[in-house]
Write a structure and sequence with these properties.
The complex is a heterodimer of chains A (about 250) and B (about 200). Chain A is of the alpha+beta class and about 250 residues long. Chain A is built from four helices and six strands, in the order αββββββααα. In chain A, strands 1, 2, 3, 4, 5 and 6 form a six-stranded antiparallel sheet that branches. In chain A, helix 1 packs across helix 4. Chain A is elongated. Chain B has about 200 residues and is mostly helical. A two-stranded antiparallel ribbon of chain B has the order 1-2. The mean pLDDT of chain B is about 85. The chains are: A alpha+beta (about 250), B mainly alpha (about 200). Chains A and B meet through helix 1 and helix 4 of A and helix 4 of B.
Chain lengths: ~250, ~200
């Protein structure tokens, strides 16, 4: 077959045809992958919840609660409330991040200290803002490490703004946004009545019910997740050492 | 015929290696080779796109008028890249997390468009597929090599295998300047070996 001439009709037809076929193919692949992508997201969220909570035997997670766009996942051992994994994003932040919205999962123990955090979704610059996943949990840099600190007693803003936390070098904008999200997450649990001292028996009963409901599936998943977590944590530790040397 | 096919594949891997000889696609080469596994994943993703786009463009070469060939090629390439991105996101979320940002950039990787224009638009389907395979493997090999050297010098590991203590790693090799240094030396070495 001879090559088509570059006439207006030929160019229009061939480009339209190619674009149509490409669109159809993409639509097909998109439909095929929507479900697995969602599943992968949920699995990541579940493993993130377990990762940021205090390490304890037999943790069960209560059903998620939403407060002002923040999602709370409360954790119990038996009936005792041991901590909360809070999912919060930069949406509605005063300090917007550099590269679009990012979402964090921050774990607090039952007195409000940060246990660990995981970055769920981010689009910050690699090598600069993207370092937030390791920067703020680096045990070698106590001034930038937020683990074990309580937003009620520590000023969670960057030292440039008079706070107590060192910002990521050359990524102050990301650091401001990050710390604001952590504080937002903390406010999410601070507004909640503390279940440990919960006075009204009604709420306690309600919470017990939730725990029991979750018990059958929750515990089994816990074991599986526990193993994954070990791996994940090991990797994070390695990263920490790497990052530590870099700075 | 058999010789020609073999030559086409080897051509991409050695004599016209996209990274060491043609010096094409430097953006992903420098950015994604922080570890051997990252380099390899990026190389394999590019290989997939190269083979698919070469085959399709070779099939369509007579249907595409000359004056609109570049936009037509780009649409074909972008389609395959988006497919790779969606499939990776669905089935390899861990690797997608590391490479996610660079996958869409395969669209503008000059190797892909370069091979479409220089080879697939002039040759038959079989040879174009082999050219895509050869170029892709050459690219993968180069990226894996750079990644392995950077990872070894930077952290003491290759493919997660610890060879010496991490504390002796020279971290500059994991960062951007190390990419340029390693690329330069490897390129000189490969050029010398090929000249013989």
């Amino acid at each position: 077959m001879a090559k088509l001439q570059s006439s207006f009709k030929n160019m229009l037809l061939s480009l339209t045809l190619i674009a149509l076929v490409a669109a159809a193919a993409l639509a097909g692949v998109y439909m095929l992958t929507t479900a697995p992508i969602e599943e992968a997201k949920v699995a990541k969220q579940q493993s993130a919840i377990m990762q940021v909570l205090p390490e304890m035997e037999g943790i069960t997670i209560a059903e998620a609660e939403e407060v002002n766009g923040i999602t709370l996942h409360k954790a119990y051992v038996g009936e005792e409330w041991v901590g909360t994994a809070v999912e919060a994003s930069t949406e509605g932040n005063m300090n917007m991040p550099f590269g679009g919205t990012f979402r964090l999962m921050v774990g607090f123990d039952n007195v409000g200290n940060v246990v660990r955090y995981v970055v769920l979704e981010q689009a910050e610059t690699p090598g600069l803002g993207a370092q937030m996943s390791t920067w703020f949990c680096n045990p070698d840099k106590p001034k930038s490490n937020i683990l074990g600190k309580n937003p009620a007693t520590t000023n969670f803003s960057v030292s440039k703004d008079g706070g107590d936390i060192d910002a990521i070098t050359a990524s102050t904008i990301t650091s401001r946004a990050f710390l604001e999200v952590v504080v937002k997450a903390y406010n999410g649990i601070a507004q909640q009545p503390m279940p440990i001292e919960a006075v009204s028996s009604a709420t306690q009963l309600h919470e017990e019910n939730v725990v029991v409901e979750e018990d059958t599936t929750g515990r089994k998943n816990c074991k599986e997740r526990g193993r994954e977590n070990c791996k994940e944590r090991g990797r994070c530790k390695n990263n920490n050492v790497q990052e530590g040397g870099q700075q | 015929m058999k010789n020609k096919a073999l030559n086409t594949v080897l051509n991409g891997i050695l004599r016209e290696n996209p990274v060491f000889a043609l010096v094409l696609g430097m953006c992903p080469t420098l950015a994604t080779t922080t570890s051997a596994i990252n380099g390899m994943s990026m190389g394999l993703a590019t290989t997939f796109v190269l083979i698919c786009s070469n085959v399709v463009i070779s099939l369509l070469k007579n249907l595409i008028p000359n004056k609109v060939r570049i936009p037509a090629f780009i649409v074909v390439i972008a389609t395959f890249v988006t497919m790779v991105q969606l499939l990776m996101q669905a089935y390899l979320p861990a690797i997608y997390e590391v490479l996610g940002l660079f996958i869409p950039l395969i669209v503008v990787n000059c190797i892909v468009l370069g091979r479409a224009e220089a080879f697939a638009a002039k040759n038959n389907v079989g040879l174009s597929a082999l050219d895509g395979l050869g170029m892709g493997l050459g690219f993968t090999l180069a990226l894996t090599l750079i990644g392995a050297v950077r990872e070894l010098l930077g952290t003491g590991c290759v493919f997660g295998l610890n060879l010496y203590s991490e504390t002796y790693g020279m971290l500059i090799f994991v960062l951007a300047p190390g990419a340029f240094i390693v690329l330069g030396y490897l390129m000189a070495l490969v050029q010398k070996l090929l000249k013989k």
